[in-house]
TrEMBL record:
It comes from Prevotella corporis. It holds the Pfam family MaoC_dehydratas. This is Putative enoyl-CoA hydratase 1. Residues 14-122 form the MaoC-like domain.
Length: 154
């Protein structure tokens, strides 16, 4: 499935209930985890201490911060869909979001998304995107929920 390209509210609305696509697999490296720890000041050992994690963690590895995994959503969303004719796009909210499974350092993740809802709010498109961030080789997703975006079409 290639990248979906939409140019208007009507084109996006026509996809209601459909799977919009899957992103490419993305490796969550220890370097990325360390950089996220530095940016957020969250240096808990389960994320950054590879030796201790190998010895003491039930995962036998460091794991990505849940919010790091979530923060990959915009990048992976951009691999699934290109929305043209926009003034801007704004993150509006998250609903029913659950962290289902930790992402071990070195694992690969991808986004699978479908259009769960769409509303026209006086010319502003409010789109609810049902998403799962999957971990390669795992049945249970790392994160799932509904991300709501506001699209301001020109």
């Amino acid at each position: 499935m290639g990248k979906l390209i939409v140019n208007s509210y009507d084109e996006l609305a026509a996809r209601l209930g459909e799977k919009l696509g899957e992103s490419e697999w993305l490796t969550v490296s220890q370097e990325r985890i360390n950089q996220f720890a530095d940016a957020t000041l969250d240096h808990q050992w389960i994320h950054v201490d590879t030796e201790r994690a190998a010895a003491e963690s039930p995962y036998k590895s460091t794991i990505a911060h849940g919010y790091l995994t979530l923060s990959l959503l915009p990048h992976m969303w951009g691999e699934i869909i290109e929305v043209n004719n926009l003034k801007m796009m704004v993150n509006y909210g998250m609903d029913k979001m659950r962290f289902g499974r930790p992402v071990p350092a070195g694992a690969r993740v991808r986004l699978v998304a479908s259009l769960a809802s769409i509303d026209n709010l006086r010319g502003i498109c409010k789109a609810g995107i049902k998403f799962q961030i999957e971990i390669e080789g795992e049945r249970k997703p790392a994160i799932e929920g509904i991300a709501t975006f506001l699209y301001y079409f020109e």
